[in-house]
């Protein structure tokens, strides 16, 4: 417990009040943060720049069908909070191998048996690379990529263009950091809509849409005042005891088109525009070749710049700013809705602990 927060809590108790927490962003991490805090009686306001909730998760309609434009898988169902929630609300999940067709870089259809054989081979080789990274992380050069390892192992084989691009941008040294949840992967056949709506149920009255945050001001904490002031583009100014930031980290490239001009015309098409989204810029986190110490980079993102008195978050301890979002979580869950959920859960619980309060035991 933090002494100043304890004093603040006692002062508010004399007025039958609880601390006020602002959550920037109504994605999965923001909604989970709000859910945890609301369950303990905190006053929560969620400021969302878009005209909808969900962040990376939303749907469009194509030919009468609802299609996820962001997350649409749950990776590793074992002990996965998103997987548990999806099951509890009867989300339709597809855990079987999906039907697919594979083309080469020249647009030629690859026979099913060849595609399956190559897919299994590459998947097994990636598993081998992951095991190698775990065993030898301390000795692997930071400049060595997954592709380097794979090409050494299959000198006479050729990766697909897509696999080549992905592997060239991932470091072998830190592949072990991204070993995610175990268990089956599940395609969310009924879309993520129900999952987001379930997370938002308790927080519905706390959500403020179309509120783009443009300025956050912090000051040294005193016993009797809110420490953080938030201003939005619409002119809203609010003071909070704590603020949880869930803004995404922007560093993902874009996929270049590669098709023949004479390709048959599609009946319809739908493309995401995350790269041009002003509140995301196409980003979710991954380990890239430019990083020299990915483990330390992720630690800094998780802690907000240092350990602080509580061993959690320096800015959160001193000035009331806490960080959430898939990029602030343990590397095994980066880039996933599980990581977003877990980070929001963690940030909210760290705030509760700072006030000397025990979080409720809950899976959702």
The outline comes out as globular
How many structural domains in the coordinates? Answer: 2
CATH architectural name of the largest domain = 3-Layer(bba) Sandwich
Number of strands: 15
Report strand %: 5-15%
String of helices and strands? HEHEEEEHEEEHHHEHEEEEEHHEH
- Uncertain stretches: 162-178, 251-256, 308-314
Biggest beta-sheet profile? 5 strands, parallel
* Rg computed from alpha carbons, rounded to a whole number of angstroms: 22 Å
Whole-Å distance between the termini?
25 Å
- Named CATH topology of the largest domain: FAD/NAD(P)-binding domain
Percent helix among the residues?
Answer: 25-40%
CATH 4th-level superfamily of the largest domain: FAD/NAD(P)-binding domain
CATH class of the largest domain: Alpha Beta
Organism: Clonostachys chloroleuca
Pfam families: Amino_oxidase (PF01593)
GO molecular function: chromatin binding; flavin adenine dinucleotide binding; oxidoreductase activity
Domain Amine oxidase: 28-127, 170-250, 265-352
């Amino acid at each position: 417990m933090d002494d100043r927060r304890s004093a603040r809590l006692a002062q508010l108790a004399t007025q039958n009040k609880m601390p006020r927490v602002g959550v920037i962003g109504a994605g999965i991490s923001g909604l989970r943060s709000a859910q945890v805090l609301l369950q303990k009686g905190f006053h929560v306001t969620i400021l969302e720049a878009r005209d909808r909730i969900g962040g990376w998760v939303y749907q469009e309609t194509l030919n009468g069908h609802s299609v996820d434009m962001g997350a649409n898988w749950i990776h590793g169902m074992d002990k996965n909070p998103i997987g548990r929630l999806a099951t509890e609300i009867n989300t339709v999940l597809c855990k079987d191998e999906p039907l697919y067709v594979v083309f080469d870089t020249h647009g030629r259809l690859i026979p099913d048996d060849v595609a399956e054989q190559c897919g299994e081979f590459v998947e097994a080789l990636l598993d081998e690379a992951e095991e190698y990274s775990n065993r030898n992380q301390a000795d692997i050069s930071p400049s060595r990529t997954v592709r380097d390892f794979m090409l050494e192992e299959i000198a006479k084989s050729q990766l697909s263009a897509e696999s080549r691009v992905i592997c060239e941008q991932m470091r072998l040294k830190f592949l072990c950091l991204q070993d995610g949840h175990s268990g089956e992967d599940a395609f969310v056949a009924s879309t993520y809509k129900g999952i987001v709506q379930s997370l938002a149920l308790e927080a519905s009255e706390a959500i403020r849409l179309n509120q783009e945050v443009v300025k956050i001001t912090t000051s040294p904490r005193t016993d009797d005042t809110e420490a953080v002031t938030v201003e939005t583009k619409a002119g809203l100014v609010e003071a909070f005891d704590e603020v949880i930031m869930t803004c995404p980290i922007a560093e993902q490239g874009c996929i270049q088109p590669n098709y023949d001009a004479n390709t048959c015309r599609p009946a319809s098409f739908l493309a995401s525009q995350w790269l041009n989204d002003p509140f995301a810029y196409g980003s979710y986190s991954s380990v890239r070749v430019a990083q020299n110490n990915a483990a330390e980079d992720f630690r800094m993102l998780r802690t907000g710049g240092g350990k602080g008195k509580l061993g959690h978050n320096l800015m959160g301890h001193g000035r009331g700013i806490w960080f959430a979002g898939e990029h602030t979580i343990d590397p095994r869950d980066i880039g996933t809705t599980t990581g977003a959920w877990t980070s929001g859960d963690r940030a909210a619980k760290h705030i509760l602990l700072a006030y000397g309060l025990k979080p409720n035991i809950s899976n959702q």
